[in-house]
Specification:
It is built from 23 helices and 30 strands. It folds into 4 domains: 10-57, ADC-like domains (N-terminal domain of TfIIb); 68-140 and 385-531, Rossmann fold, CATH 3.40.50; 159-332, 3-Layer(aba) Sandwich (Dimethylsulfoxide Reductase, domain 2); 598-715, Barwin-like endoglucanases, CATH 2.40.40.20. A hairpin with an 8-residue loop joins strand 1 and strand 2. It is α/β, with parallel strands linked by helices. The two termini are 34 Å apart. The structure holds ligand MGD (2 copies), iron/sulfur cluster and molybdenum atom. One ligand MGD is lined by residues 109-112, 136, 139-140, 298, 302, 335-336, 420-423, 426-427, 447-450, 452, 464, 497, 602-603, 610-611, 613-614, 676, 684-685, 688, 701.
Length: 724
Amino acid sequence: MQSGAATLETLTHCPYCAFQCGMKLRGAGDGPSVAANDEFPVNKGALCIKGWTAAETLGHPDRLLTPLVRNSAGELAPATWDEALSAITRAFEATQASYGKDAVGVFGGGSLTNEKSYLLGKFARVALGTSNIDYNGRFCMSSAAAAGIRALGVDRGLPFPLEDIPHAETILLVGSNPAATMPPMMQYFEAQRENGGNLIVADPRRTATAEGAALHLRIAPGSDAALANGLLHILIGRGLIDSDYIEARTEGFERVRGIAATYWPERVERITGVPESQLLQTALMLGRSPSAMILTGRGPEQQSQGVNNALSFINLALALGLVGKPNSGWGCLTGQGNGQGGREHGQKADQLPGYRLITDPAARRHVAAVWGIDEDELPGPGKSAFELLDSLGPQRASGDFTASGPGGGNAGGIRCLMVMGSNVVVSAPNSGLVERRLKELDFLVVADYFLSETAQLADVVLPSAQWAEEDGTMTNLEGRVILRRAAFAPPGDVRTDLEIIQALAARLGKERFFSFPDAESVFDELGRASAGGPADYSGMSYGMIAENQGLFWPCPAEKQEGTPRMFTSGFPTASGKARFHPVRHQPSGEEPDEEYPLYLTTGRVLAQYQSGSQTRRIGALNELAPSAEAEVNPATAERYGLSDGDPVRLETRRGNATLTVKLSPTIRPDTIFAPFHWGGQQSANRLTNPALDPISRMPEFKVCAVRMHPVPSDAAPPKIGNEE
Ligand SMILES: Nc1nc2c(c(=O)[nH]1)N[C@H]1C(S)=C(S)[C@@H](COP(=O)(O)OP(=O)(O)OC[C@H]3O[C@@H](n4cnc5c(=O)[nH]c(N)nc54)[C@H](O)[C@@H]3O)O[C@H]1N2
Ligand SMILES: Nc1nc2c(c(=O)[nH]1)N[C@H]1C(S)=C(S)[C@@H](COP(=O)(O)OP(=O)(O)OC[C@H]3O[C@@H](n4cnc5c(=O)[nH]c(N)nc54)[C@H](O)[C@@H]3O)O[C@H]1N2
Ligand code: SF4
Ligand SMILES: [Mo]
């Protein structure tokens, strides 16, 4: 599947975030170097420190080079592919024979290429016949995605290209910190400022992004819908909404107007902590600009009100007549490398390729025909990510669903799980519970590059090829499908995920549905399966993607140039109009109280990526961010007798963790911020609340109640990067 020989220079893309910076890889597989691809129009020659150091993962000494199988002494030991695949097949077949198809589950990820996401979804439905497949994007984009579909008829994170940003007069950026999470994006905001535009950032912290903004709204965690409704209140009062647009292109405004009337500025200041004067200033900037954008990140979205929060900002964009207008609109900033494509092609519990619903009879007919199976053989929708993890283990069959509460669980525990592209022991909410659930499994398989915290619990670990060792497409945050080309052959006994999925399918007797000679042929079938769906890739080919520096979906056969800008003339809803949704501010799943008096919010730092399984192994990144630091306002720190650099114990109703205090003069005094990139005792997710959004099933990573205590210095954890 790879071009075997090392090439001198290969054009590819960064393995990490959804910006998918274009880069050049030079040298051989064991010592390659990275350079920016100046010609690629998205990053325009810029990379962040994670991109610059990305090649270090390839020849890293920690890399898994052979399969590992747990032996009779309970240790993971090197094994052949035959032994590993046989052990998996035996476990899956025995479990399904005794407990039904759904007793085997699959957990994917937004870092997998489109081809892998597609094939993993097909593997679950066709080779295993299980309904239980979901992926980590549920923890990432699901709230914004659900909101986009409900209001606009389709979910493409940015429905316009990044190149529109410099031309927007005002941008409201809510709960996103691209200066740390997508640094090359800052050049677009800088260009916007140079063009005379204004950036407004709503974040409980004055982040590096907020630092350079015209205005920073220091919002209380969990109060985003109140902010949006409050801004709408002012805009309506001042006659700054676009009535012609509302009349011609939307439906349902009247109920939203009624709700907005109850969000007068004084009330909104009380809920959000944002002063009335700043609310007015923000509303006027948005309302008086001929072009404006509202962009959301994980701040408002990773809440048990995440869908409502995203909808409230879409309401605002619609009322201002922004959606579908030049250099304007609402968008969400997708996070993972293939967070966009990963949510389109069927690794989601309720979904078939092309962003179709698995419950839609026409979609089932179409996809079953492409796959060459009977429509009735296709399973129905399965459990969402956290619910899937919460249902692991034999005793779950009796309905013991402690964490997800009423309606959260499903009958029938999952006894075998295959994980590809996620490290849930570090990244899932209430990770202590998730770890216990994983240990209750009869059989766990993990495919990864490294022995992640999750792989350490596995019965079989499969070594996967990395980004630079395989071909595949990724869909960036703009909906632009790009091509990564293999630069090197995988080392040792390593196989690509596509080879792994196909080898397993063959052992399960389904070879005839899984015989693709290369990634490109998987892409071609994906194109056919997606044809006619919202995310239509059927007009794309590897050749055209490379030639055009990426193609924007929808890209049906009749419109091979793709669609950089959506909604210019209508919305893909039944009426062709966008829909307003009445949204009220509601308290978070857990608010601070006497016992747990502070807010805890979680997120990212520049030098670490996600669960840290890749970046905690890279020297330069560990030097920049060696351990988990809790950001605390100096006034709060003083009250607790804490100084900069002190160890601090954070406790919530789920668990406790020990971090290091980092004084942050600009964070709200009632809020602690913790990054989630570390495992073990530094793990922020031992603390987080898995209260789920009722629609998207997104956990509340961004808000819970916490208390803190100083830790005697001799009890402090050692400052090491890769805690196990
Ligand atoms: N360095 C680095 N970059 C990354 C990643 C990484 O792990 N590391 N991950 C990638 C992925 S998958 C994603 S999803 C993106 C995420 O990218 P972002 O959304 O930019 O990242 P976060 O740090 O999760 O959250 C953004 C901000 O939300 C704020 N916030 C917290 N609570 C609230 C709230 O209640 N309301 C509001 N309005 N704001 C709040 C936080 O203070 C934080 O600054 O980053 C991508 N890029
Ligand atoms: N508290 C808190 N928790 C969070 C968040 C938060 O803001 N706060 N954010 C959430 C968000 S937005 C996200 S996206 C999740 C991400 O969390 P995870 O799902 O854990 O993401 P990664 O750390 O990227 O995990 C990917 C794992 O798969 C491996 N891997 C990467 N690419 C591939 C591949 O192509 N094939 C295979 N086989 N393996 C691969 C990596 O080595 C790594 O071990 O975390 C969520 N968790
Ligand atoms: S911004 Fe994202 S894609 Fe670009 S180099 Fe950094 S991590 Fe990689
Ligand atoms: Mo994410």
